[in-house]
Amino acid sequence: MFCPDIKGRNDIFDMRGIDRERGCMVVVRPDQYIAHVLPLHAHAELSAFFNGFMVRRN
Question: What is the mean pLDDT of residues 32-37?
């Protein structure tokens, strides 16, 4: 869950382009590292992220 820094200048929602009303998707690795944060409509970006390291098996 993200909480904006309302006293500072680094609003995580604005920095990541996240719509406050719609939310976001967070890719979390098994070791609990947050690997990526994307707007819910970022299907191509999510696919590109996983294509960078996943291998298709037949």
Answer: 89
